[in-house]
Each structure stands twice: as structure tokens, then as C-alpha cells.
Specification:
This protein has 216 residues and is mainly alpha-helical. It has 9 helices and no strands. The radius of gyration is 20 Å and the shape is globular.
């Protein structure tokens, strides 16, 4: 308990930093993932090709390598002045968006084709059909895998500690180096913090799943 009581402020800062990083990255991943999923099912060949390249490239790129590409590549391109936190959000959000895209696309594929055909028959555009008819129904199927992806995202934030982002994993290195506490005790408290975050995400998505469930 001494580790937690002596450094409660640091644990609180690391916990809130991880929550903020997870929430910001999740928002970016969801927005990009849904957009790219729309590209993947678009009738425009160029958009479909872009979506395929995006998903294939990011799903097969190690996350650490993507962090390096963002933190070292953007300054090399002249895009300087970015805070390390937002660089981490960009890396985590883009990486997770590829998996979100596939989860959403799988949900879209469960919607009967007749739904889209009926929408087109009354003059709705592709964007209107996707946003008003297909995606609301696809969400019911996509919610469970999206929950798993957000939990994985929360755990992936630990990589940001190697890129000067204040979060829980960075706290472990600080306490072990500066104070000399037992490393297993530090890991225990940090693991409990991650459990709180992942349980909260799991509970949120279970609630969404129950709210969107169709009575049978």
C-alpha cells in the first residue's frame, strides 16, 4: 500500500492520462473506421481501393513501427510542433481504425441486400442509404467486436510510455528508477488500474449491446 499512498497523485495522473489517451484514440478510430468501412462498400472503385490499402497496410504494420513513423516521420516532413500526446492519439487511432473498419464492414454484410435496394428504389443516395438504413442495423452486430477492440486499444496505450506520454506504463518506469520500490508491487497496482479501465469499457459496450438488441 505504501506505493499507492506515497504516490497517489502520480497514479491519479497516470490513470487519467491513460483514460484520456484511450478516449481520444477511440474517438479517432471510430470516426476513421466507419468512414473507411463506407469506402470499402462504396460503388466508387477509387474509394474501395483506398479503403483496401488503408486496412491492409495498417493491420499488417506493427504498432511500435507506426509510433516511430508518426513521431519521426511527421517532423521530417516539416510537420513540427505536435505534442507527444496527440502523436500517440494519431498512431493509436489510425492503427485501431483498420480493425474498426473490418468490424463495421462485417456488420454491414449482415444487413440484407434488399434493404439497400429498397432505399435506392425510392431515390436515396448511397450516403443516405448507408447512414440512415444500413449502419443503424449493422451497429447491432458490430458492437461486440468493437468492444473487444476498444479494450485492446486501452492496453495498447502502454506503448505510448516509450514516446514520452504520461500514462500508467510510464509511471512504472518512473517509480522503479527513482524510488526503488518492488517492481512486482508497482506492476500489481498498475495492472489493477488497467483492469478498472477495461472493465468500464466492457460494461459500457454490454450496455450498448443490450440497448440495441432486437427482441426475438
Amino acid at each position: 500500500m505504501n506505493v499507492l499512498s506515497d504516490h497517489f497523485a502520480e497514479f491519479r495522473e497516470g490513470f487519467l492520462g491513460t483514460v484520456e489517451l484511450t478516449a481520444s484514440s477511440a474517438l479517432l478510430a471510430l470516426v476513421l473506421g466507419i468512414l473507411i468501412a463506407g469506402f470499402r462498400v462504396s460503388p466508387v472503385p477509387a474509394l474501395r481501393a483506398f479503403g483496401t490499402v488503408w486496412v491492409t497496410l495498417l493491420r499488417n504494420t506493427p504498432l511500435v513501427l507506426l509510433f516511430l513513423a508518426v513521431t519521426l516521420g511527421l517532423p521530417a516532413l516539416g510537420l513540427k510542433g505536435w505534442d507527444s500526446f496527440w502523436l500517440a492519439v494519431l498512431a493509436l487511432g489510425c492503427y485501431t481504425s483498420a480493425f474498426v473498419c473490418e468490424a463495421v464492414r462485417s456488420g454491414i454484410n449482415t444487413v440484407p441486400v434488399g434493404q439497400a435496394e429498397a432505399a435506392r428504389s425510392i431515390g436515396m443516395t448511397f450516403t443516405q442509404t448507408l447512414g440512415q438504413i444500413v449502419l443503424p442495423q449493422a451497429a447491432r452486430t458490430a458492437i461486440p467486436p468493437l468492444g473487444s477492440l476498444m479494450i485492446a486499444l486501452a492496453k495498447n496505450t502502454a506503448i505510448a510510455s516509450g514516446f514520452n506520454v504520461a500514462e500508467l506504463a510510464a509511471l512504472q518506469k518512473q517509480l522503479n528508477a527513482d524510488e526503488g520500490y518492488n517492481i512486482y508491487v508497482i506492476f500489481l497496482w498498475i495492472a489493477l488500474c488497467y483492469l478498472i479501465i477495461t472493465f468500464a469499457i466492457s460494461g459500457l459496450f454490454r450496455l450498448l449491446e443490450s440497448r440495441l438488441a432486437v427482441a426475438r
